[in-house]
């Protein structure tokens, strides 16, 4: 592996490790994401009960919970740098690409932890069918990657504005609406018992979305971060 690639990987891991240490101390983003996800899931479950909800409604509810849970905590990855005054030091110590990858991996870790907790609870509380769990996990992994890929660059954009929380959700929804439609469509087929071959089109769309979003974010991040 070229030295430049080794340096990029090591710096990206250093950024990730720094954010992880800070998060384990404060647990701000993790608590916000988990509390919102668990609370929303509990309210939805108790309101609707386990009355055999149709697959399309189950899929929509799951990804609505995932979307708003992500909105509650993923912006903090860059907001914390601005509030603590460490953004300038980070700019001097690491290249933009390394910073982006470190922040992206950190956001993926946060959302993966939330997903590992929320998903089993969702199936238990809503009595959703579990006979097609393999394809659902494939859709879930692509959904988490897509959410992180889009929200990381948006978090960098809104980090310096005054109304961060509201603007984060407002800017994220138009970018994520295509992803959410693909996720709901794929999850509906999976929960309806359809095989993986029947959601091949949605899987292709999800992979294309993740690749395009992460690639575009890498190209744009340098201009956003150094502005």
Description:
- The chain has 227 residues and is an all-alpha fold.
- The chain is built from 9 helices and no strands.
- The model has no long low-confidence stretch (mean pLDDT 83).
- The chain has one domain (3-226).
- It has helices spanning 3-26, 28-48, 55-73, 76-84, 87-93, 96-126, 133-158, 164-191, 200-226.
What topology does this entry show?
Layout: H1 3-26, H2 28-48, H3 55-73, H4 76-84, H5 87-93, H6 96-126, H7 133-158, H8 164-191, H9 200-226
Helix pairs in contact: 1-6, 2-3, 2-6, 3-6, 3-8, 4-7, 6-7, 6-9, 7-8, 7-9, 8-9
Brief rundown of the structure:
The protein is mainly α. The protein contains nine helices and no strands.
Helical fraction equals: over 70%
Total count of strands: 0
Provide the structure class.
mainly alpha
User: What percent strand?
Assistant: under 5%
Total count of helical runs of at least 4 residues:
9
**Largest sheet at a glance?**
none
Features:
0% strand, 9 helices, mainly alpha, globular, 227 residues
């Amino acid at each position: 592996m070229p030295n430049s690639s080794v340096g990029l990987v090591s710096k990206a891991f250093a950024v990730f490790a720094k954010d992880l240490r800070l998060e384990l101390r404060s647990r701000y983003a993790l608590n916000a994401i988990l509390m919102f996800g668990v609370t929303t899931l509990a309210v939805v479950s108790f309101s609707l009960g386990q009355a055999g909800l149709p697959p399309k409604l189950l899929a929509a509810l799951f990804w609505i919970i995932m979307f708003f849970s992500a909105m509650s905590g993923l912006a903090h990855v860059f907001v914390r740098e601005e509030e603590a005054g460490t953004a300038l030091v980070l700019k001097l110590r690491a290249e933009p690409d390394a910073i982006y990858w470190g922040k992206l991996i950190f956001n993926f870790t946060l959302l993966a932890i939330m997903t590992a907790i929320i998903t089993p609870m969702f199936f238990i509380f809503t009595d959703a069918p579990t006979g097609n769990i393999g394809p659902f996990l494939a859709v879930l992994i692509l959904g988490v990657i897509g959410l992180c890929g889009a929200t990381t660059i948006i978090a960098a954009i809104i980090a310096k504005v005054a109304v961060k929380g509201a603007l984060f959700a407002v800017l994220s929804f138009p970018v994520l609406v295509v992803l959410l439609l693909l996720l709901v469509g794929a999850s509906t087929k999976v929960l309806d018992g359809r095989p993986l071959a029947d959601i091949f089109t949605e899987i292709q769309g999800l992979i294309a979305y993740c690749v395009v979003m992460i690639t575009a974010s890498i190209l744009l991040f340098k201009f956003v971060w150094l502005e």
